[in-house]
Design a protein that fits this description.
Layout (H helix, E strand, L loop, with lengths): L5 E6 L2 E6 L4 H21 L6 H14 L2 E13 L5 H9 L7 H6 L3 H11 E3 L4 E12 L2 E11 L20 E12 L4 H11 L2 H5 E4 L6
Parallel strand pairs: 2-5
Antiparallel strand pairs: 1-2, 1-8, 3-7, 4-5, 5-6, 6-7
Length: 216
């Protein structure tokens, strides 16, 4: 993959792809907005046990930061055939420019996977809940985001991002898929300093660039 064309970042539990043509301030504004919305929603609702309320709170915070939801779809469906996170993300996002989710997920090293895992996996005695968000910034004012969530009885190891999931022979896994388009409705500049102050040290800890090493 040409690292000069696309850049990959993690903002808490969300992976974001940016065209390299985007300026650093424009990219940082998007990452800061996503991080603050996730953190605010996490304080109000459990993202696994109250996912609908979590999403509403997240969308409300994004709206306060001038990012308006202009399109949104969601569905819960059984997956009778084996699948990977990459295949579900690609299906949810549809045909968009940029590298594929499969290529990007394959680029994640152990350190980045561990950082993502803290937000994306919750292990229980007999099952594991998984929730991953993946997005693409078309430009400085348009974002597409996909989210995948499901619960599985199969144990997940450190290779959970590339794991092939399938039903346990008794019932199909039920997956919740959402796709959201957000548009910057007005100037973000008035919110910038307030967001940076609110994030504090979380800004440097939870936002990181992930080097792309796979060659196309």
């Amino acid at each position: 993959m040409d690292d000069s064309t696309w850049q990959l970042y993690r903002s808490a539990g969300t992976l974001m792809v940016f065209p390299a043509s985007l300026s650093e301030p424009e990219r940082q504004d998007i990452l800061d907005s996503l991080l603050l919305a996730q953190l605010v929603a996490n304080k109000q609702h459990d993202p696994y046990q109250a996912s609908s309320q979590w999403r509403r709170n997240w969308a409300h915070t994004m709206d306060l930061l001038h990012w308006t939801v202009t399109a949104s779809t969601g569905q819960e469906e059984p997956q009778e055939q084996p699948f990977t996170l990459a295949s579900l993300l690609a299906h949810t996002l549809g045909a968009l420019p940029g590298p594929t989710p499969a290529t990007l997920l394959a680029d994640l090293g152990t350190t980045h996977v561990k950082a993502l895992e803290a937000y994306c996996i919750r292990r229980h005695a007999e099952s594991t809940q998984l929730k991953l968000s993946f997005g693409l910034a078309r430009n400085a004012w348009l974002i597409h985001l996909a989210s995948i969530a499901f619960e599985t009885a199969a144990p997940l190891d450190e290779h959970w991002l590339s794991h092939t999931h399938q039903d346990n022979g008794h019932r199909a896994l039920t997956v919740t898929r959402t796709c959201t388009t957000l548009t910057l409705a007005s100037d973000y500049a008035a919110e910038r300093s307030k967001v940076i102050t609110s994030l504090g040290s979380r800004r440097s800890r939870e936002i990181e660039r992930i080097p792309l090493t796979t060659q196309s």
